[in-house]
Design goal:
Blueprint lengths: L1 H17 L5 H10 L6 H13 L3 E3 L5 E3 L1 H25 L3 H12 L4 H10 L16 H6 L1
Antiparallel strand pairs: 1-2
The chain binds zinc ion (2 copies).
Length: about 140
């Protein structure tokens, strides 16, 4: 069960970084290039579950796109992810790679309260050390 959720999250993260709709054949190719460990055979069923959760839209033979809810959920996770990376790099002197690895797993389980505390500690950064923008997610800030 946990594994399935991991794969759904991975796919959601990919679609978020891709920034536009993508056809399933291209998606498979990109994931291969990216070496993302999503088994080929599972991609269709993962996408169907994301459709059921209203996180993506997908018509057969058409492109897959994130819904607003999917966009929001992915942005929220990115916010946690990058703030954690910065925190680990700044306070524990982890390398970017180490910080990334740790943060990816923690990002979806750490509370928004904790993330907001980290955000304040880091003086509300707009950009991560990896140079990506840190999405401002009202839901995350409000929850803290
Ligand atoms: Zn980052
Ligand atoms: Zn949050």
């Amino acid at each position: 069960m946990k594994r399935r959720i991991d794969l759904e999250e991975k796919l959601l993260d990919f679609l978020y970084s891709w920034l536009r709709p993508i056809r399933i054949g291209d998606l498979k190719k990109e994931l291969e290039k990216d070496n993302t460990a999503i088994p080929h055979s599972s991609i269709n069923s993962i996408i169907k579950r994301l459709v059921d959760d209203e996180l993506v839209t997908w018509q057969k033979y058409g492109p897959i796109s994130l819904t607003q809810k999917g966009q929001q959920q992915a942005a929220h996770k990115q916010r946690h992810f990058h703030l954690l990376i910065m925190f680990f790099m700044d306070t524990l002197n982890l390398s970017h790679l180490e910080a990334k690895k740790e943060s990816y797993t923690i990002a979806s389980v750490i509370s928004c309260t904790m993330i907001e505390q980290i955000n304040r500690e880091l003086n509300n950064p707009q950009k991560c050390h990896c140079n990506e923008a840190i999405p401002r997610v009202e839901e995350c800030i409000a929850r803290s």
